[in-house]
Amino acid sequence: MTGFASKLWHWLTDRSPRDAATPVVQPRSADYAPELGIPPASETIEVNVDTECASGSPIEVGLVEALLRGPGGELVRSKKKVVVVVGCGHPVSQFQAVDEKGRHIRGIAGPCDHCVPHYQEEQSKGRITPFDAARLSLVCSDCGKITSSGRLCCPKHYTAVANPDGTTTYLGPEETNQRQRQDTMRMILGPIIALFGENSEDTPQTHRQEHEDGQEAH
User: Which burial class, exposed, middle or buried, applies to 194 when counting CB atoms under 10 A from its CB (0-12, 13-18, 19+)?
Assistant: First the structure.
């Protein structure tokens, strides 16, 4: 059982992770009931935690299901989806993107290479928690793109460029700045190069014309 699952089990049963293996049904704490819409004083019978997380990351997504006995002896089934809103602003409940039953479910592409150092710095200054630093660094599978330098970026850090063949190239901040410098140099030097280019093309023609005129004179 993961650390998250252990804490959740303790949350549901008011037992320590060490004692959680003992199959003793105890009343749930009443403050947990309103969140899931479960009657107070219900008893927890079974909890199924089906979540996933990246190694070394505090981010965990998935599904938590519970079977309880209500105050009148009735069985109550509860299902709660663990959702995380990642840095691009989209809620995600799983890592792998899938298309099923005509519906697209986005996943987590991974951490944006440019967001990670930014939010790590914010965390080091005490402005955000380690959890939020990890969460905000992530980008969903729909928004994340691999740039021409091979780095994963979120929409805040890439620029989409249309190619003549109809494909799209994604440029990170470094490539975008380099492209802008090149465009600026072309704007400055273009007229100068064109001017000298025209002169260099006219010069041989002028010499040929003068040579032909000289031959006709003789």
Answer: exposed
pTM exceeds cut of 0.90 = no
| Whole-number Å distance between alpha carbons of 140 and 72 | 44
Note the pLDDT tens digit of each residue in 89-119. 999 999 999 998 899 999 999 999 999 999 9
Q: What is the mean pLDDT of residues 28-48?
A: 63
Task: Note the pLDDT tens digit of each residue in 55-71.
Answer: 778 888 998 898 888 88
- DSSP letters spanning 4-60: HHHHHHHHHHS--TTGGGS----BPPGGGHHHHTPPTT-EEEEEEEEEEE-TT---E
Q: Would you state the structure tokens that stand for residue 99, as one six-digit string?
A: 């298309």
**Exposure of 51 in the CB half-sphere (CA atoms within 13 A):** 27
Number of neighbours of residue 137 by Cβ within 10 angstroms:
24
Tally of CA atoms within 13 A in the half-sphere of 138 that contains its CB: 29
Torsion of CA 164, 165, 166, 167, to 10 degrees: -100
- The predicted pLDDT at position 210 comes to 52
List the structure tokens of 90. 């989209």
